[in-house]
Backbone:
């Protein structure tokens, strides 16, 4: 049957129904496609069109990825600061390491301690070296490396000296101001005896007996 | 009903054409609407969705690059943290150093002074023992703060002119000690008289002097020393600030 032969009423119905069918079919397909797509910024003007609710639509994935990229870029932006901090930390570490001896320099420290005795000027006072014993103990406190092993040991040089008070103060000052780290952790002074020379009417004071614990920390390695 | 069209033929033709238009218009309108809907779907399906998928791939690649760079920075930061931890432990060790040369010098100066505020006696040290202690601090420190403390133990020998003034000598000695640089600048804690447990003065005929022997144990706190230094700096700054306007006026 030809279009012109159809009754006007049927023609009207067909004219109304076919676009409706097309709109319904493609509208439903658009509904699904929009749901898959998500909040596309280019389709903001048609955001009023209803869409299927898909949890992982494409634009939510894009936004999620962009957020992750931003977070990673924020980390990357700290690179210059981290490099600066690392350079600074390395510098400070080198400075500290230069102050703390390593295992091989233990004997050098003992030598320095004796040499400083000889450095005391005669017009200041008198110090005489008697002996030294060295005690070493792995540190149980801070400064541990991975595996729980300490990265340094505490080395105590137990010095025996004979000194007058001025000489002792001068010597202590030299020990404490030495570029190498040395700390006085114990000091015992037993006064020297006083003798009276009745013939010459003179009082002579013998040197005090001094026991001195000088502590330093020996690094096991100089890594980093 | 029979219709008779009296219009001239050219008008009739036009009227006939317009009479057949409603269907054509309907088809056209329907096609237009269908075309809009199909076009929109096609745009979403074949333009926007592939574009979004392409964007996802691009962003994924960007993320891989950014993650790689960020991981490098994280590794760098971890290295910095490890360095800082080691530095802190070494710093803590170095900070445990307490200087003694100045303290012993101040102590010798204090005992060697010509006269005390109460005249008639002299004090000398007949034995000195300095050692590190682990005793807890009593003041000047918040909880958890590192404590570097030393015991300063010494044997005192006080020699005075008169036996009856022994109490006065002892009293004068402790009052003076508290005012000395030795006591204030070196972080000694509490009152110098605190460890004093009484004495037994002895009159020695050969030198005609009263002699008091006593062992004293004082405690030195590095943090307290730092706190005292801060007070001294603040006092100096306050004094300088007070002097500045006076000079300006002059």
Residues:
């Amino acid at each position: 049957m030809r279009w012109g032969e159809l009754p006007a009423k049927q023609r009207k119905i067909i004219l109304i129904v076919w676009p409706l069918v097309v709109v319904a079919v493609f509208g439903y397909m658009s509904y699904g496609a929009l749901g898959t797509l998500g909040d596309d910024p280019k389709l903001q003007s048609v955001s009023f069109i209803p869409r299927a609710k898909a949890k992982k639509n494409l634009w939510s994935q894009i936004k999620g990825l962009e957020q992750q990229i931003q977070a990673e870029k924020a980390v990357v932006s700290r690179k210059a600061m981290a490099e600066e901090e690392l350079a600074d930390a390395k510098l400070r570490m080198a400075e500290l390491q230069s102050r703390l001896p390593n295992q091989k320099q233990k004997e050098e420290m003992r030598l320095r301690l004796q040499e400083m005795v000889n450095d005391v000027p005669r017009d200041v006072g008198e110090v005489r070296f008697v002996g030294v014993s060295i005690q070493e103990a792995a540190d149980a406190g801070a400064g541990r490396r991975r595996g729980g092993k300490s990265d340094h040991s505490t080395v105590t040089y137990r010095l025996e000296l004979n000194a007058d008070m001025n000489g002792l103060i001068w010597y202590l000052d030299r020990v404490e101001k030495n570029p190498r780290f040395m700390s006085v952790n114990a000091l015992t002074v037993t006064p020297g005896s006083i003798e009276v020379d009745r013939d010459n009417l003179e009082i002579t004071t013998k040197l005090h007996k001094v026991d001195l614990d000088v502590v330093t920390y020996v690094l096991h390695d100089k890594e980093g | 009903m029979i219709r008779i069209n009296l219009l001239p033929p050219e008008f009739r033709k036009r009227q006939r054409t317009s009479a057949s238009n409603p269907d054509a218009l309907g088809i056209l309108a329907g096609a237009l609407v269908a075309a809009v809907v199909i076009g929109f779907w096609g745009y979403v399906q074949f333009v926007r969705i592939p574009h979004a998928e392409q964007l996802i791939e691009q962003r994924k690649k960007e993320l891989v690059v950014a993650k790689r760079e960020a991981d490098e920075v994280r590794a760098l930061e971890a290295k910095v943290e490890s360095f800082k931890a080691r530095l802190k432990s070494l710093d803590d060790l170095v900070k445990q150093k307490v200087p003694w040369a100045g303290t012993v010098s101040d102590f010798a100066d204090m005992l060697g002074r010509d006269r005390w505020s109460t005249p008639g006696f002299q004090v000398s040290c007949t034995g000195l023992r300095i050692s590190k202690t682990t005793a807890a601090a009593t003041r000047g420190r918040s909880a958890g703060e590192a404590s570097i403390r030393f015991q300063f133990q010494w044997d005192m020998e006080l020699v005075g002119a008169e036996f009856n003034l022994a109490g006065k000598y002892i009293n004068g000695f402790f009052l003076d000690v508290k005012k000395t640089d030795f006591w204030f600048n070196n972080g000694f804690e509490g009152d110098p008289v605190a460890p004093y447990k009484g004495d037994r003065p002895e009159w020695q005929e050969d030198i005609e002097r009263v002699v008091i022997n006593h062992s004293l144990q004082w405690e030195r706190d590095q943090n307290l020393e730092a706190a005292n230094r801060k007070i001294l700096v603040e006092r100096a700054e306050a004094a300088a600030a007070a002097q500045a306007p006076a000079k300006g006026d002059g």
